[in-house]
Design goal:
Layout (H helix, E strand, L loop, with lengths): L2 E7 L8 E5 L10 E5 L9 E4 L4 E2 L3 E4 L7 H14 L11 H6 L14 H25 L1
Parallel strand pairs: 1-5
Antiparallel strand pairs: 1-2, 3-4, 3-6
């Protein structure tokens, strides 16, 4: 690793998965993706949205969606991955092939496909409410 500013995403359950900042220029993933740790004690299944370009360790799956992933959608999905990864641990890795065979239930439209617009809108409302509550709390601190 070369010292720098690019987030290095490892099998961590803290700091958005960032375990270091590096200056390496190869194997950089673009921002706007999700990462899911499939290895590591207590970190298996921890998912995070990565808003900026990053490097991922070998213990992390980088998810390239087949749909338009917004930050709101990613924030909705993260705890679902956390829950889906609970049965797995350091000795029982939640690797890519096992993940591909799994399912996560999502709100769906009449066609049975995930309704990403509804998910995005719902999370936008949740985040707006949280910001309002934090702003109100800030007035009393």
């Amino acid at each position: 690793m070369i010292a720098g500013d690019t987030p290095f995403i490892g099998a961590s359950l803290e700091n958005n998965g960032i375990t270091a900042r590096i200056g390496n220029t190869g194997h950089i993933h673009p921002g706007g993706l999700m990462t899911v740790a499939y290895n590591g004690q207590k970190a298996t299944g921890k998912a995070f949205y990565q808003p900026v370009p990053f490097w991922a360790s070998d213990d992390v799956n980088v998810l390239y969606p087949k749909f338009h992933l917004t930050e709101n959608i990613a924030l909705f999905l993260c705890p679902l991955f956390w829950e889906a990864g609970r049965p797995y641990a350091f000795e029982n890795k939640w690797g890519r092939e096992i993940m591909k065979d799994g399912t996560i239930s999502l709100p769906a439209g009449e066609d049975g496909q995930p309704d990403w617009r509804v998910i995005d809108s719902w999370m936008m409302g949740i985040r707006s409410t949280a910001r309002t509550h934090l702003d109100l709390l800030g007035r009393f601190i």
